[in-house]
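Allow me, if you will, to draw on your knowledge of protein folds for a short while. A protein sequence and the structure tokens that stand for its backbone fold form the material at issue. I would ask you to consider whether the tokens describe a fold that such a sequence might reasonably adopt. Thank you for your consideration; the sequence and its tokens are set out here:
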Amino acid sequence: LIAVVAIMVLGLKLFRYLQIKPRPRPKCLDDASLGVHKYFKSDGVKLHYVESGDPSKPLVMFVHGFPEFWYSWRHQIKHFNQDYHVVALDMRGYGDSEKPAGVPNYAIGHLVEDLKNLAEHVDKPKFHLVAHDWGGGVAWHFVSKYPEMVKSYTACNIPHVTSLRDQQRGSWEQMLKSWYMLFFQLPVLPEFMMMKQDNQCFYGIAKEAGLHKDEELINVYKFAFPDFTTWNRTINYYRAAVRSTIFKNPKSLPYMKGLKDIKVPCMSIFGTDDKYLSVDSAKGTNKYVKNHRLELVPGVSHWIQQEAPEKVNPLLQDFMKNNA
């Protein structure tokens, strides 16, 4: 009987430890200045995006990273929707987009085609692409597969994927920084780690960017990651990437072919205080891109577009203007 009671008590404590509190939808997500919430179907998956600006003007597509969603681009949306047609995507598994089950649904081919299908949905065959972190990894594959669709690509704190692999193999610094990518291959435990103490991880992320006193921002992210399902689907990006590399997924090969010879004009904006990616990996991008501009931003974290929009936005504006 004592053992049963002890197990019940431990189970209750674990439940509370991993419980994510339900929250009402934050009002800031429906701020009209950020745009209109819309949906489209990509290979049968319903995806959410926020659209603003004049549809007759050039398109800028923003693609977020992990663990984020469209709202991470709020500063850029407001800055650019005066002169551009702006869309900010919730990638599959994130935010208000559908969350198909199974690791194969997050293979790189699906992710790249989601970007292509969004561009076609808004009837813009050529556009400026801006992406961060995991969204940037997808975007590197996109510009190699569909260069004719991209006027310019700006990668925010995400090196060229081959440069990153080079550093993971040859640099202890990047090997150590990449520890979580291996941890994310485990079942269940990574999800629980991120969920613990009511998504406390978002306080730590905000602190890296000096935004930890912004309670509304932290609440927004906790709202966007409300359960195990969301964490599972978003962590599946890492599982799919590793499995594709190990098992040489033939469906992913067409999206790898042009990676080492990218001709699209590209700019890397890289905060040098990134805890997850090394400066050398950003510098190595130049090896694989014919027309590459590197902008190092000293003292700024991985979460660069949220931490330092006053530095990111002018760089974006100049680069897109020069590649109109």
